[in-house]
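Curious: why this fold?
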Amino acid sequence: MRTLPVLIATLLMAAVILPSCREDKKIDVASRLRPERMPTMSTVNVSTLISDSGITQYKIVSPLWLVYDNADTPYWNFPKGLYLRKYDPLFHVIATVAADSARYFKNQRIWRLDGNVELTKAPKDIFLTQQLFWDERRKQIYSDSFIHIETATHILEGHGFVSNDQLTGYRIIRPTGIFPVDRENLRGGSSPSNAVQAMEADPSPQNQATVETI
């Protein structure tokens, strides 16, 4: 009987200590969580239309879409690749974009496309680079990386690129080459001056690109 008070006291102490330990453990786990690094939404096999003011702007297709609304700079992340179609107000496709990965910074309304970026503009223009930015607010597309451009009449290469978001007026910041697409001329040898003449000979709107050094 003498041991009974001691046993009761021990049990009471354990009852006080164990909840306290559990509470400390919960607090410790919570302290290690970083909400700004955790996606608030995760979606697989995405295919969706994005609208602004009731007008469809573009279509997004991606294997994985992660949304980070709690980050200091909220953004969408497409770590497994992105395919995007841009539409005009009449829902005609005016451009497409494909990249190995992409991020969209919501507050700034800026896209950053990385790795094997391929941008096309109807009917035949192709833009290839490793990183590309699209500023929706300023309606501008730009890159500091090497870029390769193919049109119906010529090929342009260089470092740095600036364009409006319709890709109807663009320039290469530091051009390194301008070549005619005519393969016969390429085999026979042609100078940059011949390529420039070929560009000037085609007045069609899709070929009114400007190439200048800044």
Observations:
- The longest helix spans residues 3-32.
